[in-house]
Amino acid sequence: MEGNTVMKELKYQINYGANLIGTIRNYPELLEGSREIFEAVGKRVRDELDAGGGRLIHGDFWSGK
Prior knowledge:
Blueprint: H1 5-26, H2 28-31, H3 35-50
């Protein structure tokens, strides 16, 4: 999966671009005060991916499988 840049980009857009920042619009009274933190997290992940870091992982870590 390391070389799968298309999937890394898709996962980034879904998790950080669309959902993390987009959630603020859905619950502004609750989350607007955290916008700066959300944006910093997204930027850090973006910087790591652009630098060749990061790994694509599956998000289901249930130990019962």
